[in-house]
Write a structure and sequence with these properties.
The chain has three helices and twelve strands. About 10% of the residues lie in helices and about 45% in strands. It is mostly beta strands. It has helices at about 35-40, 105-110, 160-165, and strands at about 1-5, 10-15, 25-30, 40-55, 60-65, 75-80, 85-90, 95-100, 120-125, 125-130, 130-140, 145-155. The strands form two sheets. Strands 1, 2, 5, 9, 10 and 11 form a six-stranded antiparallel sheet that branches. Strands 3-4-12-8-7-6 form a six-stranded antiparallel sheet.
Length: about 180
């Protein structure tokens, strides 16, 4: 899946450590901006969702994003995580953009609550790399379903943190459209 932003194009991908026939349904969805977030300068919020049907033994599964060459951000602010949130922030003179997802603690909470993560899944720290990061999950078994997403928001550049607040997943009511 690809998302065009004011800072460039972001690719969202998933990979498995082993060939297993695992399948995923991906969706890119624009999310409404609340009055509060509009007051913080947020222009758009998007979510990239995956619903995976695990087949065989996939080994470690990674959910990742990376910028396509030609991106415009000139300030890689870096990891900007919080409680229950793994996030990264990028900026230009005109825009701030944040990308976030559940951290390993929130994934564990979701597993215990039956929210799209198997209880036996094994969670690892997000792996930050040049121009992106990945969320590795292990312990997935044949027949499991696994639901993961990244939230993306951008706002006009300022000292405000509206874009970060928009991807703060612990407070994000649009978290998982696949939850039944």
């Amino acid at each position: 899946m690809k998302l065009q932003t004011p800072l460039g194009t972001i690719n969202f991908v998933w990979t498995t450590e082993k060939e297993s026939g695992t399948e995923a349904e991906g969706t890119l969805q624009r999310v409404g901006v609340t009055k509060f977030l509009k007051s913080k300068g947020v222009k758009q919020i998007w979510a990239a969702y995956w619903r995976m049907q695990i087949k065989g033994d996939p080994g470690l599964v990674r959910f990742s994003f990376a910028w396509e060459p030609g991106y415009l951000w000139n300030d890689d602010i870096g990891s900007n995580s919080g409680q229950y949130l793994d996030a990264y922030r990028y900026s230009t003179d005109e825009w701030n953009l944040s990308i976030g997802t559940d951290d390993e603690e929130m994934l564990g909470i979701r597993a215990k609550q039956g929210q799209g993560i198997p209880i036996h899944a094994q969670f690892h720290d997000a792996e930050y790399e040049e121009g992106g990061f990945s969320v590795p999950i292990g312990g997935l078994k044949d027949g499991d379903e696994c639901w993961i997403y990244f939230a993306v928001a951008w706002a006009k550049a300022s000292d405000d943190v509206g874009d970060w607040l928009a991807v703060d997943t612990a407070n994000w009511k649009y978290r998982m459209p696949f939850v039944r």
